[in-house]
Amino acid sequence: MTCRACGAATLHRALDLGAVPAADYFPPAEQPVHADESTHPLAMDLCGTCGLAQLADDDTVTEEPRGVEPQALKDQARDAVARVAASGWLTGETVREFGSPHGGSWLELLEQCDVTTDRTTADSGQLVASADIVLDCFGIMHEPDQRAAFAARAEATARGGVLLLQYHSLAAIVEQGQWNALRHGHFAYYSLPALQRLLADAGMRAATAWQFDLYGGTTLVAAVHADDPRPTEAVIEQMCADDAAMTEPATVAQLQAAADGQAAALRSYLERQSASGLRVFAYGAASRAVALFALAGLDHRLVGAVADASAAKQGRRMPGTDISIISPDELVAAGPDRVVLTLSDLLPEVSARLPALAGRWVTDDWIATPTG
Ligand SMILES: [Zn+2]
To answer: For residue 194, how far is its CA from the centre of ligand 1 (angstroms)?
Structure first.
């Protein structure tokens, strides 16, 4: 095992979630749980040489399905393009976008800024001439070979052009205990120092950056070729200093306590409800819930079923468990005493849509409180 960025063998285990089911396949509810359903190790390593946090190993071969773009992502894209334009970085005539399985494209927003976009080449994966503006919004973390991925983006960026690279910040992940950001298929988790090293190896450097609240902390970097006349702005030095601890294995390893703590709190909460004779269901069969349910070792005795608005998931079950997925209407009909919300952000939306369940919603904060 060597680093996906620098090739060094100095990898330190930062977070180990054990064997977790692949989060993109929800088996039919009637199909019995297979022993080999949960045999995909999920762990994060930190390279002691270049400081990149990365997926330790991935034996899953399935592709992440293109998701529906959430409104928060669309709003942030609009905000980001406006800020980049206002800072004078949207110059040039051509743009090329490296796509992301999470969906979302900035091409239309750039067209509104009078930048010509070539849609035929943008997402084809074929070699095309370099562009003045190269976009990568949550795309590059899906590349197993990080060194090669940065080289490809450097090659796609014209002389005097800019590479706009947006990622979920490792500092936000660590400081907010977002251990669930670790996923099969997500090969890299960036801090600015590690990113600078990756860019440098590809003949580029970060010249400036902007920060956003999306996902608790999202960074957009403008990178240029190393010999570009534009200076490196002070914000880069500041952000490198802020992120310095994120290249230390002990700092990133705090995620382990966050993961173990959340799984233990959830399990203990569910056992207390069960002992009190209360029926608990859950809402939201998102990928992140798959890892949480596996880590907490849940089954249908603790969680009656999980409701999800996605019709494609209904009639199926949570991978690695015997917990079936039902529709929101079925959830209401089941009359649960408590409904654990796997994504706290959904509370305003689901409580408005399912008024019959008022007073029964339970979020993470609530579970962490021992009196619950
Ligand atoms: Zn490395």
So the answer is: 8
